Amino acid sequence: MIPGLANRRRFSDLSEQEVLALAISSEEDDARIYRTYAERLRAEYPASAAVFDDMAKEEDTHRHWLIERHQARFGEVIPLIRREHVAGFYARRPVWLVENLGLDRMRGEAEAMEREAAGFYKRAAQATQDAATRKLLGDLASAEAKHEVRAGELSEAHLDGDAKGEEDRAAHRQFILTWVQPGLAGLMDGSVSTLAPIFATAFATQDPWTTFLVGLAASVGAGISMGFTEAAHDDGVLSGRGSPIKRGLASGIMTALGGLGHALPYLIPDFWTATTIAIAVVFVELWAIAWIQNRFMETPFMRAAFQVVLGGALVFAAGVLIGGG
Predict the structure, then answer these.
(1) What confidence tens digit (pLDDT) does each residue in 245-280 have?
(2) CA 82 to chain centre
(3) Where in 36-184 does DSSP place strands (E)?
(4) Which residue ranges does the chain devote to CATH 1.20.1260.10?
(5) Among the listed residues 89, 90, 85, the one whose alpha carbon sits nearest the alpha carbon of residue 1
(6) May I ask the CATH architecture of the domain 5-159?
(7) How far apart are CA 119 and CA 110, in angstroms?
(8) Spatial distance between the Cα atoms of 277 and 266, rounded to a whole number of angstroms
(9) Helix, coil or strand: residue 278
């Protein structure tokens, strides 16, 4: 009976039968992960899905070899032993933590899986006395070590230049829709909408601490409001804009940061020093927004700068006039 997680077995204490059983369950897990990746990618990236389908088939082949060797040496009953039962053994992250990662990250995860599997088979082969089992484990170590090359061959078979380029463009578009657009909208709202209350308070009270509290409240409140609004108004199913939680986080966090940028200088006790720094921060924020629009949204830089700086200047002037009056 395999002990609980608190008392894991050491790899060196496993019998040859248990090593084979562990290899069988590991190959089964890896094939399942690759098939999950394939299903996750099939609709948007069919070529990459085919790559992971083929990798899953190779893991199935390895598992069949291992089962045949176990049957020949130990019989039909395979002990239940998995990665989590062995101390220091490499573990796979739960698939729900990685299945929503980007395409390149999934490919990277697959490469790491193969490197770890190769290391396991090398270690297992060294600990095995039976010649046939040792040969099988050594062959599997070589196969896993070459899987990165095999993955490249699969990519060549399923991902020609046009398919790879189209998938990369699709991944980039999804990144824009899920992260950049909501984050940019939040940054613009946080940077511009908080200018009037912060600088109106600053010039009305000339009290840095009070100004900071008003800026903090306005920034956090705006961040929460924008985050919930973004997450609630579109579930992403029809629009294809991605997870509402991701979009809500991007919008909410960037909104709060946009306001906090020119609120934090008012932690400085001297009013005019704090105000000078806050004004400088405002210009940096506005130019950053213009750069993001140009870089990711393909808006001509001068037009983006004119729109953002003009809008920010008007709101800033309104705050100064209201507070100074």
Answers:
(1) 888 999 999 999 999 999 999 999 999 999 999 999
(2) 27
(3) 86-87
(4) 5-159
(5) 85
(6) Up-down Bundle (1.20)
(7) 15
(8) 9
(9) helix
